[in-house]
Design goal:
Layout lengths: L6 E7 L3 H12 L4 E5 L23 H14 L4 E12 L2 E8 L6 E10 L3 E3 L7 H7 L6 H4 L8 E4 L7 H7 L5 E4 L9 H10 L2 E2 L4 E6 L5 E5 L4 E3 L2 E3 L4 E3 L2 H4 L24 E3 L10 H18 L11
Parallel strand pairs: 1-2, 1-5, 2-3, 5-15, 7-8, 7-13, 8-9
Antiparallel strand pairs: 3-4, 4-5, 6-14, 10-11, 11-12
Helix pairs in contact: 1-2, 1-8
The structure holds flavin-adenine dinucleotide.
The site of flavin-adenine dinucleotide (FAD) has 38 residues, from helix 1, strand 2, strand 3, helix 4 and helix 8.
């Protein structure tokens, strides 16, 4: 795609389920769209998603990504591999600095509107063979997504600053064998939190977590400071996240906790013409939410832009 050719109707930044769905909608509205993606959508980490509607036996994340790209291609859309490094407004037009992923010549992409679908970065935690552990489902990042899939398993959970005991109690609805480990060297749980855990039957491990390794058969082994090892079936590290909202913040868009963007019911940020959808916005990190927001935003974008009247069909 020649990015200097024109002023696009919309520049979509991010090619996960949110960006790709918006691309499909906008192409079907016959809009000129540039979609840039630097890869590694969170979708690509999902072994099998069982809660995305319409797939009774579940769907592998990479397969769903491929399906969405193919659907976009059916309407003449494509994904430009690479990254938008900077976004600004010049004379009422958005300008994105695009660096192609293949080492090609950087260029500027101009567009009337921008839809940010850049997702979140998960905070890191030292777990042995992380990629393999997540892709096999031994380490999991989203209890809302896959609690059902770990019913009656032995589940390890770590305290998080935002919710010290909440995640462990949530997991207790799926299994009677939940172990909660404290993250820091000193216990931060108060009496009320300890009582809640005891009443629910969550095992609070006394010694703080020192490290996580994986057994040969891909079971997480949680090591505590006192030298004990706890073998679990599945481990939820409850890492926290950092929304990739810098490009929007640079234009004055408002963010809330975890740098997530605040948007209205049409997914508009406070910056006219700048929309945001999916995990980068405040709300539940789910594929269905991302695709639903994309439908809303794309339709609003289409109705906001000047109509492009279709020429009469030639006889
Ligand atoms: C292990 C795991 C399991 C999950 N299971 C489920 C599940 O079962 N069901 C469910 O509903 N959800 C699940 N989720 C959550 C789901 O994956 C996310 O909600 C969804 O992927 C969000 O889509 P998105 O398009 O907003 O962001 P993403 O899918 O993360 O895509 C964002 C894209 O933007 C790109 N990008 C970022 N910045 C730039 C830039 N400057 N220029 C160009 N590109 C950029 C990124 O590289 C990325 O490709 C799971 C997540 C994980 C990690």
């Amino acid at each position: 795609m020649d990015c200097s050719r024109t002023v696009f109707d919309t520049l979509i930044i991010g090619g996960g389920p949110a960006g790709l769905t918006a691309g499909v909608y906008l192409r079907r509205f016959t809009r000129h769209v540039a979609l840039v993606d630097k890869g590694n959508s969170r979708l690509s980490w999902i072994p099998v998603s069982h809660n995305y509607p319409g797939f009774p036996d579940g769907i592998n994340g990479l397969q769903l990504l491929e399906n969405l790209r193919a659907q976009l291609a059916n309407y003449g859309g494509s994904v430009m591999q690479g990254e938008i490094l900077d976004l600004r407004l010049e004379d009422g037009v958005f300008v994105g600095d695009y660096v192609p992923g293949d080492g090609g010549e950087p260029c500027q992409i101009r567009a009337m509107t921008v839809l940010l679908a850049t997702g979140v970065a998960d905070a890191g935690m030292p777990v042995e063979r992380w990629d393999e552990a997540v892709r096999s489902g031994a380490v999991r990042l989203c209890p809302v997504c896959d609690g059902w899939d770990v019913i009656d398993k032995r589940i390890g959970v770590v305290t998080s600053d935002a919710s010290p005991v909440g995640h462990a109690l949530f997991m207790r609805t799926f299994s009677a064998d939940v172990l909660l480990f404290e993250r820091g060297p000193v216990s931060t749980l108060n009496d009320e939190e300890r009582q809640k855990l005891a009443a629910a039957g969550v095992t609070l491990v006394d010694s703080p977590l020192a490290g996580v390794t994986m057994s040969e058969d891909m079971k997480p082994i949680l090591h505590t400071k006192d030298g004990e090892d706890y073998r679990c079936d599945v481990f939820y590290p409850m890492l926290g996240e950092h929304a990739r909202s810098d490009l929007a913040k640079g234009l004055g868009a408002e963010t809330v906790e975890c740098h997530k963007l605040l948007v209205d019911e049409h997914c508009r940020t406070g910056v006219p013409g700048l929309f945001a959808v999916g995990d980068v916005t405040r709300g539940l990190n789910q594929i269905a939410v991302a695709t639903g927001q994309a439908a809303l935003a794309a339709t609003t974008i289409h109705n906001t832009l000047p109509w492009a009247l279709r020429p009469a069909a030639s006889a």
